[in-house]
Amino acid sequence: MTPDLNSSLSLDFLNTLKTQTAGAHQRLENLPVSSCILSPEMKIEDYAHYLKLMYDVHYDVEENIFPLLSDNIPDLTERKKKHLIEEDLTFLNYKQPVVSPVFNTENITIPFALGILYVVEGSSLGGRFILKNIETIKGLDEGKGVSYFTGYGNKTGSHWKNFLNVLTEYQEENNCEDEIIKGAIYAFDCIHDHFVEIQKNEN
């Protein structure tokens, strides 16, 4: 049975998840590379750089996290985004980046993997907000080169809700709140560290 996201149990879990991950989430958003993507002064090269960083994240998730969750999330194939970044980079005349690993996925559990995917899927919601800024940049103002941030388009909200249904149902059936939260914090921290490391290597 699909859980009611408005039930007290579901709300308590989702609120706890959001609260417990808020610090790690904010730390990632505070990075210059994260704030740059929201700046009206953003340059095309800044945009391409961010896409390359997120390509690493989605490549890692699709190669290593998706297989773990193939029996848990029915619409997993629809959630692939690596190819969207490839399309955008091609439009911008950038080569497909050499992939750098982001996560250590050896021996992780299903709830931990769900926590990681919670962070990655949640970025689609933020992507809609970022898209509004990107589309004001000359060269990206005609609906091309923005496939990744367009994401699920007008289905973004329903895709997010569907994922939360799966996440909440799994948590209620397996009583694994702590492990999901650990996975989500781990994801935020790994993406943060990846962004910092790449930036350091480029300077």
Give a structural overview.
- With 203 residues, this protein is mostly helical.
- Helix content is 66%, strand content 0%.
- It has 8 helices and no strands.
- The chain has helices at residues 8-29, 32-36, 44-65, 82-91, 110-134, 147-150, 156-174, 177-202.
- The longest helix has 26 residues, at 177-202.
- The termini are far apart.
- The mean pLDDT is 91.
Secondary structure layout:
Layout: H1 8-29, H2 32-36, H3 44-65, H4 82-91, H5 110-134, H6 147-150, H7 156-174, H8 177-202
Helix pairs in contact: 1-7, 1-8, 3-4, 3-5, 5-7, 5-8
Summarize the structure.
The protein is mainly alpha-helical and 203 residues long. It contains 8 helices and no strands. The mean pLDDT is 91.
Main sheet characteristics: none
In percent, how much strand structure appears in the residues?
Answer: under 5%
**What's the SSE pattern?**
HHHHHHHH
Q: For the terminal residues, how far apart are their CA atoms?
A: 52 Å
- Principal-axis shape: globular
Q: Helix count, per DSSP? A: 8
Task: Let me know the number of strands.
Answer: 0
Instruction: Detail the poorly predicted runs.
Output: none
Structural class of the secondary structure composition? mainly alpha
The percent of residues in helical segments reads 55-70%
